[in-house]
Amino acid sequence: MKDRAHDEAMAELFKQDPAYAVELLNGILEDGEQGELLVALRQMTKAFGGVQDVAEKANLNPTQLYRTLSAEGNPELRSLSAILKAMGLRLAVQRVQAA
Which is nearest to 29 in space by CA: 88, 85, 77? Predict the structure, then answer.
């Protein structure tokens, strides 16, 4: 069951501190947990104006955005890049230091 109070609290935190959102996404991407990434992006969507607004800015159908960010979602790189761009973010490649 989804905890709406937590999602709302996270959305508010992302609004107040966009740098935290960037740190969180980078941490999730580093760990490679797609499910966590989708949860964070759903929460961030609320912080950046809601599904309708983000979908419009990303040139996506709102239904497509809902599906893409659902628990069963598997976003294409193109969609993920468009969603992040709508939020003022982008994907980047970074060299990983060998252990």
Answer: 77
